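Page 42, continued from yesterday. The earlier attempt failed because a stray header line got pasted into the input along with the sequence. Redoing it now with the clean sequence only.
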Amino acid sequence: MEYKAKISGMEVEAYRWDPGTIVVQKGESIRLHLHGLHGKVHRFSSPGLNIKGMVKKGEITTVTFQPNRNGTFELICHDHLTPETHGPMIGYITVINP
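This time it went through. Structure tokens are written below.
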């Protein structure tokens, strides 16, 4: 998602994953569909879950993974890491017991 606002007359943009947190079950085969709604490209990863990929505006990217440990893991957009790049764009994947 992309949000725009004006602060002191300047337009400010911010990107985020929506929903910001998803919950999945440990041991399940997960297919995560990411829809590119705004921006040109979003290169992303979740190092704790061995996920990485790229989603482009107007496209859907599907990643498949099977989490083997509980916890909350970041889903990081590497194109929007700082306020200067309209970020940070970080979501969370929480893995729970079935």
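Notes: The first strand starts at residue 2 and ends at 7.
Reminder to self: strip header lines before submitting.
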